[in-house]
Design goal:
The chain is α/β, with parallel strands linked by helices. It has 8 helices and 9 strands. The protein has a 7-stranded mixed β-sheet, sandwiched between helices. Strands 5-6 form a two-stranded antiparallel sheet. Helix 5 runs parallel beside helix 7. Bound molecules: uridine 5'-triphosphate (UTP). The site of uridine 5'-triphosphate (UTP) has 25 residues, from helix 2, helix 3 and helix 5.
Length: 223
Amino acid sequence: MKAVISLGGIFFSDAETIKNVAAMLDELAKSCNLYVVTGGGERAREYISIARELGANEALCDYMGIALTRINAKLLISALTNAYPEPFLDYKEVAVAKTKGDEERIAVMGGVSPGYTTDAVAAILAEFVNADLLLDVTSVDGVYDADPRIDPSAKKYDKLTPKELVALTMKGDLKAGSRIVIDPVAAKIIERSGMKTIVINGSDPRGIIDAVHGKHQGTEISE
Ligand code: UTP
């Protein structure tokens, strides 16, 4: 099994949380060929908002976000026992490094270029390395028809087709640092690749192992 995990910024708030998720990823890597993409979280949003106040345009704000996602990638690498020593900067670098015999070593990377979020990075990486699964681990427990943190009547989907996901995400905002469960670029990549995708809540990191083995209470995106 080859899996790409998009790890939301919520996992990088403190050392204990990073340690817990790293221990679980180390365990999972013994039975699963793992690629992890790290989000930027609140710190990225903080820097983006300061930059915006200073007059930075959206692309420059995106670069701020990318820098923070890469710092989080370094934090995760510090806590993992068997990872490549540096975050990868693009997709091809990962594929060149992770060759046969290296399946147990975890490849970690943050953002790549402006215009999308690390969900899209994870979707492109999953397509590029021919993963079996894209797992999006986030702060909500699946894909909703509205933001459940704002709208209490929001309805959660257990299953969606890629086409339905695209239609839902197109309503979202793609400004630097915006809060969307899956960004529209990621949704389009998922649609074109047909990549099986699961969105779960990461409050219990063990849920990641269960989800890779098909047990979850999030949203599954597949045909
Ligand atoms: P995140 O991937 O962390 O955004 O990227 P997110 O998914 O909304 O947030 P969390 O971490 O799951 O809570 C943070 C910001 O960095 C820029 C974007 O501005 C994004 O909103 N970014 C990130 C890019 O422009 N390109 C990338 O490849 C990655």
